[in-house]
């Protein structure tokens, strides 16, 4: 019974265990998809976890990028700070360098001031020595001189000072120049001691270049067209403190071919003494001179009212640039009287000659009589206008290229320069214009044919002539006597002009001077006397008898 009941129950449960068609279909589908319902749910869980990992990865990458950007910004900031530090160091170095340069400039200025002070002290000492030597020379005198001559020499200093204070009334002021309002022209010194007008330049150029000079910004004080020299001469002022190299650079930028120099200072050379009448020493009339030689004299103004010059043929012109400055007359009066002076008790060398006297000197309280390059070049052009045969330069100064060009141009026109060697002593360097090629340099000798103790020496000495204790007119209407190479130069100028007036060429005239020279000192040409002491009458110098030295054919 029991067994029967169990069997019946088993049979009733069989439909429940067999899958229904719907379940079977679902199962089949699940199997076909590769897994049951549990696997499908697992896939859903994995699908939700993968986006979270990607987000975390993106956040990490973003953090890394932000960190890299921060590191880059820090590096850039460090570089900027380093550059700023380097720039600050460079600026500090530049400031230190500027301070060092400023200190060096201040030191150089102090040294320059000390040098200038030493030079001034040296000049004062030399001047005192010269005055002392002149006083000793006056006391010694010459053998047989009268007491009245000694008295005349002792009064000369006062007379010369008075003459310096008298302006040449016939000399007009040149230019509307504010220099006239100044007490003194400011003088500077080059390294070798040559003097010049500070912040003032002389320009020598052609007309086209001169027209461009306004572009320099310089103050063009004077512009002179020199028709005979075929050049334009300009006196210009620059801003204070400009040196020569800078001035040449600025002017050269608009006028490349222009010559630019300092406006150098030149001086006369004449000491005190008493002594000999020119015509008694040199009777040039023994040459048989006919006609009237034309002689140029570039010097101080001349006292035309002096009785020795009242009948002379003298034409004057003033070439002083600075308005209101007194024109000294002593030195020019001395030189011109030696050439053409004529009085009952005085006779110059060539009383009939025509003199063209150019006034180029001013009276400076601190510097004495002084002339400038600008005035000298203007005067040379005027000499060519008047067809002079020779130009007498009884003055000395530094080498100046513009002055040299002007003298060379005059020489090419057949006008020759005779110049004093200078009174700076036998060891002094050559002075100009005497030392220029083609200029006849003249030294001075005493009555005993000894060279003047203050005369310069060198290969530029051509001839010697009387120059110690030479009687001449002075600006106060009286006579006195002086010494110096300035007074020897007119003797050679007179002889040379007389020879040219006879129709000789300059080369022939120079040869005659050589033939007339008495050999002194060493045999032949020497640096003390040149070819020797000039004597008259002069005879031609043959090639076989001329002393060694300058070749007349090259003169």
Short synopsis of the structure:
This protein has 555 residues and is an alpha/beta fold. The protein has helices at 2-17, 21-32, 37-140, 147-154, 156-164, 207-210, 244-254, 278-281, 330-340, 373-385, 401-412, 485-501, 506-516, and strands spanning 187-189, 195-205, 219-226, 231-237, 259-268, 271-273, 294-299, 313-318, 342-343, 346-347, 354-359, 361-364, 368-372, 390-393, 395-396, 416-420, 440-445, 463-466, 470-473, 479-483, 517-518, 533-534.
Bin the helical content. Answer: 40-55%
Q: Give the end-to-end Cα distance, rounded to a whole number of Å.
A: 179 Å
| Count of individual helical segments | 13
Task: Please count the beta strands (DSSP E, at least 2 residues each).
Answer: 22
What top-tier CATH class of the domain at 278-534 fits best? Answer: Alpha Beta
Which fold name corresponds to the CATH topology of the domain at 278-534? Answer: Rossmann fold
Overall spatial form:
elongated
Determine Rg (CA atoms, Å): 50 Å
Helix/strand/pairing category: alpha/beta
Output mean pLDDT. 80
CATH superfamily of the domain at 278-534: Peptidase S8/S53 domain
Largest β sheet strand count, sense and barrel closure: 8 strands, antiparallel
Outline the low-pLDDT stretches: 16-48, 138-183, 538-554
Strand content: 15-25%
Query: In CATH terms, what is the architecture of the domain at 278-534?
Result: 3-Layer(aba) Sandwich
